[in-house]
Amino acid sequence: MSEVRAEILNVAFPNTAAARIIINAPASKIFNLLADARAHSSFDGSETIRKSLSAPSRLFLGAKFSMAMNIKIPYRITNTVVAFEENKKITWCHLMKWTWSYELQELGNGQVQVTEIFDASSVPGYAAWWLRKTESLARNPKWMAKSLVRLKAICEA
Known about the structure:
Shape: globular
Number of helices: 4
Helix content: 25-40%
Order of helices and strands: EEHHEEEEEEHH
CATH topology: Alpha-D-Glucose-1,6-Bisphosphate, Chain A, domain 4
Structural class: alpha+beta
Largest sheet: 8 strands, antiparallel
Radius of gyration: 15 Å
Strand content: 35-45%
């Protein structure tokens, strides 16, 4: 049996990364997991999410949720959902102004293409400094691919 891998996409925009995978599960099942901030650590390929500190039972447009994180140092971050299309797209951002998005596209035959996108293309200077300091831009594509593989395993189980 071959190893399951996500595709790291070539992105033409600076400070942006994306990865994609095909998941054999209903879009609603995948989206429900993405819309549950308490579940994010279960598929986090970066292993930087420690746990959800506060979140509604299901995210929605404008929802805020806080996470305990650790990238070089422990910290907590509050995110706000800035885009929400049921079973299609969810995006959140925080004070550094970059966004994390998951876009779902049904392909038929029970398959859903899931694309994760990190976009820091228009962040303020202090955020760009943090990205360089933590080397996140160099690691994000691999972390995202690992997250998608984990998401696939959970959703197909």
